[in-house]
């Protein structure tokens, strides 16, 4: 009986140890899942931010093109007005 009791004691200790290791493994697994989810969240945020910045760049390029066309138009108007002024002055 003593040997059986000793064996049961050893098996009990072994089961307790395995339970502790299982709990520790589960805890680490949850930490890893949390870290992975955080990284996914950060990646999605960066992707959304990149899309916003790309949209802003496209908007600014369109604005720049409008300003370029407006500038060219104003330069032509200025040249026409200067030509008119020159013609008016030479007529006097």
From TrEMBL:
InterPro entries: FT20. The keyword ATP-binding does not apply. The keyword Transmembrane helix does not apply. It comes from Buteo japonicus. GO terms for biological process: cilium assembly; protein localization to cilium. It is found in: Cell projection, Cilium. Keywords: Cell projection, Coiled coil. This is Intraflagellar transport 20.
